[in-house]
């Protein structure tokens, strides 16, 4: 049975409800929608042990995502995936769709015989093997040209692709992705005719800096009313039109273009007006004059200062020239799908992470290798029993080493020297089927424990367990499979851990890999139930939390909306610890087997510095009361204080590196501790978040508490369990 429990209440999954808001918005007159459309929360359950695949959304689902200000950040691929395909090409559009972006931007020009084609420049010189203005060439003349690779130029190689028509592009995008229609406001009626003829009126998004009067009149002249993106810029000095647009034309999206960080265009006043109108803020990170220097290029080296900065300022839709890297970054900011857990295996040089979004998983890891006698890597996993098949596509992989590895694994335990079998992709050494048939076996300088095929990122891998027989496969398309070497025998326990594994093969570096099309199929399928506990959701009121401050040792902060963690004075005099406890509902039976428990917290503020901090989770071992203190440093009232704080467990349950990107989610694997609470081997006194060691660098990390005024920001405990 597929179900989700929120606050102990079981909610059945309803796909029909997922479309409702979008359908209302498209069918009612636009000016009614801001008042008549209620906010809908879509919830989905994890069924069995299979993760959702990355699949193109329907037009209705795309509109639901566009209008749902749920804290997510959507991605627009500028001119398609032009780094790997010709710009404004059909292959580039398809590649961007395959990445899981929500929008593709294209540029539209009109030929001498009145046909609409995709071309950024007003001439064909840069991107094709021809010359001349688009407006002076017929469609047949343009179709005779070949597109150049990437952004073109005389040095770029020619491809076999031709210049697409708008009709071809919209037919390809139909039902899969929103399309940002650039350079076509002056020919918008011609473009609209193509959208009508291709049945894509609910996907094409017009854009301009035009006045509200002009926009509103044109939108009202069409049926159905077109999607529209208002562009507010420093250079056009049209911020004064914003109030009129919100009240009048009511655009579906607002693009903000600003030269400086202090620009009124990106001020909190502007952003709040847009979000209060129920619309997303769209920001380009293409080059510096569009975003005050917070560009894609900056984001390659420091994503928190680039993409993270624009998200912190309110952007919920980003247009990028690096869509695959932006998607991976956004994945890493989100919690894993319910039912999955993650941890570093072995002694790694830097703390790794794992997150998932839209059916994609991104793991970041250091680690020396998955090899020798003890492994070092990041693992996202599920506990399973019996025969198993895991399949995934390795979409991308950082080249931290020629032997960096990203792939799928079945592992007997979470110890570094465990028996395992895996199928991993490497940057320079193909796809490898590796195994350690006995605990602690040193695989170095040995033979017979690996087989390989040619291949790399973009390919599918599969690992099959049947009894004690393990077989590895690879595929270019996910349909036709090639076995890697021979099947091998490993005497492994029936209960194992199956999942995704990444190692940088260099313990001084962090590298990332992104997976999609992930499926896990077990012969002995279980029925799983997920319980998501968050204060104020579905009547759940069982969260208590507070932070305690060594400097103000008698103050209590239980009523504050934030949970502070800090250790930045360079001495043991300015510690701040956060305590969180979730009362487990009685609906979880005492004999339940906890397959995953994730503590999720959202970073809302950083103060006194932006240095990254390693925050650990430990077990609280004594009772404490929340109290009612408020304010940044609390006040002297009853409730837990530094002087009365409970004891903590000696061992670290999990830890994460916390950066300075506000609104990022951080997930801690607390499966074993929650299991002990459920079966009664320990008492639930909650968790404590703290820095494990004093850090002389300044910087306080503030997480949303259960008292935060935004319900969606509050911490949650997501528990997935099965019965024996």
Automatic annotation (TrEMBL):
Residues 73-330 form the GP-PDE domain. It comes from the Bacteria. InterPro entries: CBM96 (IPR055372), DUF4996 (IPR032160), GP_PDE_dom (IPR030395), PLC-like_Pdiesterase_TIM-brl (IPR017946). Signal peptide: none annotated. Pfam families: CBM96 (PF24517), DUF4996 (PF16387), GDPD (PF03009). GO terms for cellular component: extracellular region; plasma membrane. One of its GO terms (molecular function) is glycerophosphodiester phosphodiesterase activity. The keyword Secreted applies. Keywords: Secreted, Signal. It is found in: Secreted. GO terms for biological process: ethanolamine metabolic process; N-acylethanolamine metabolic process; phospholipid metabolic process. NCBIfam families: DNRLRE_dom (NF033679). This is DNRLRE domain-containing protein.
